[in-house]
Amino acid sequence: MTEHSQLPTPNAQGVVSAELKAIVEALIFASPEPITPKMLFRLLSDEPKEDVTAAIAALRADYEQRPGLQFVEVAGGYQIVTRPELHEWVRRLFHERSTQKLTVQGLETLAVIAYKQPVTALEISEIRGVNTSGVLSTLLERHLIKIVGRKNVVGRPFLYATTKEFLIRFGLNDLTDLPKVEDMAAALGFDPPAGLTEQTLREEMLPLDEPE
User: Fold this and answer.
1) Number of H helices and number of E strands within the chain?
2) CATH topology of domain 87-206
3) Which of 35, 33, 28, 60 lies closest to 167, judged by CA?
4) 114-134 pLDDT, tens per residue?
């Protein structure tokens, strides 16, 4: 197949082309982040969108029968990942990528932001009982959190929230997929601060200033 050749299309009975399905699988597997339907349509622009959609659906069905991997929707896109029942087998790798790269302080701070967002640095420090300025800088550098506005109080402090990279790193489609605080803390190996389980009203935000 040449670079510009037309990909095979479903036959008259509507059976998805094995080659098209294989290409979609390869694209999803090779993508460093969840690949969206829009991106797949663009990469496979020579194919009718309904054929690409059918290939995605067929691939999803195939992975329902696979014991080790599963086809999931994460952060608005698709990924091929290990099944949750195999968590203990991949736990060491998970800790290599997440726990060891982030200190306990970093994980605690990230958890506070995830469950209390949007939240200020002072509020994070009050929940954790320690200053968090250095940890916030690290999380910002790793694109796990972002500044989303300012709190409408004296001093107009920044408000922090999690990012799409956070969703990808922890295998979440959106924030409604967050597990219980206790379950997340146990999985990541730290004790959640007491204030993390308390309910917080959503902050009134002010728009960010233009960069100076």
Assistant:
1) 9, 5
2) Arc Repressor Mutant, subunit A (1.10.10)
3) 33
4) 999 999 999 998 888 777 878
pTM for this prediction? 0.51
Query: Which residues are within 8 A (CB) of 184 and not within 5 positions of it... i.e. 6 or more apart?
Result: 111, 114, 178, 192
Cβ-Cβ contacts under 8 Å for 203 (sequence gap 6 or more): 118, 119, 120, 151, 152, 159
Whole-angstrom Cα distance, residue 118 to residue 154? Answer: 17
Distances (CA, A) of 117 to 20, 87, 162, 175, 196: 41, 28, 8, 10, 11
Is the CB of residue 20 less than 8 Å from the CB of residue 64? no
User: May I ask the CATH architecture of the domain 18-82?
Assistant: Orthogonal Bundle (1.10)
Domain locations along the chain: 18-82, 87-206
Query: Helices marked H in the chain — which ranges?
Result: 18-30, 37-43, 49-63, 87-94, 104-116, 121-128, 133-141, 164-169, 181-188
